[in-house]
Fold this sequence. Notes:
The chain has 243 residues and is of the alpha+beta class. The protein has 2 domains: 75 residues, 2-Layer Sandwich (Phosphorylase Kinase, domain 1); 135 residues, D-amino Acid Aminotransferase, Chain A, domain 1 (2-Layer Sandwich), CATH 3.30.470. It is 28% helix and 30% strand. The chain is built from 6 helices and 14 strands. The strands form 4 sheets. The protein has a 5-stranded antiparallel β-sheet. It has a 4-stranded antiparallel β-sheet with strand order 10-9-11-14, with helices on one face. It has a 3-stranded antiparallel β-sheet with strand order 8-12-13, covered by helices on one side. β6 and β7 form a beta hairpin. The two termini are 23 Å apart. The model has no long low-confidence stretch (mean pLDDT 95).
Amino acid sequence: MRGTFVIPAKPLYEGKAKSVYSSENPDELIVVFRNDMTAFNGVKHDQFTDKGRLNATASEFFMRMLETEGIPTHFVRMSAPDTMVVRRLEMIPLEVIVRNIAAGSMTKKYPVDEGTVLDRPVVTIDYKDDERGDPMINDDLILVFHILNAEELTKVKEMALKVNKVLRGFFDECGITLVDFKLEFGKSAGTIYLGDEISMDSMRLWDKVTGESLDKDVYRFDKGDVITAYRNVLKRIIPDAVV
């Protein structure tokens, strides 16, 4: 029991760190942010107390912020500190990545050093399929596979770049560099919405002064206490939040 909801025993979908349940309202779903943390496509897996709540708090904050900037999101309301009620969407099986600085897989696949500031934000898209290792996909394939039409693809890219502009400026004021991040989108009644989450799990964040990681890389590469890093981010973005 969370808030006014009785969460069904069986989720509709269970991801690596979130569980999605049906709601009494057929147009809404219930998303529970779990304490699970994974890396390297689930090879590394642990649980950390309060991790789900911290990510849910960040995601609520950013979804509300983006709504005020004209970005439609699936966020409806919170029903508990770790539980979000969202609009039911037909999810688009793409991971849209916006990169401002070279890091992570970009430096492994291409001849660019980590930390290189890119001339402009770069949008790359992966096909969301764990069994195939989420392969990168280009515009032509997206169109011929009928994942999106040309107008929708343009819209998704425009939304991703607008999210980047808003978040990059906000983080800069908080003393944090937004290196890159992943977004997912879905459709409802012909409208494209930002879905999934925006949290420390889905972004790469560096302290502007020290360069230290404040994101999931702390866990991936054993750089310290990942929950301390997540709390650090929340204290900067929401100074009056209970973290």
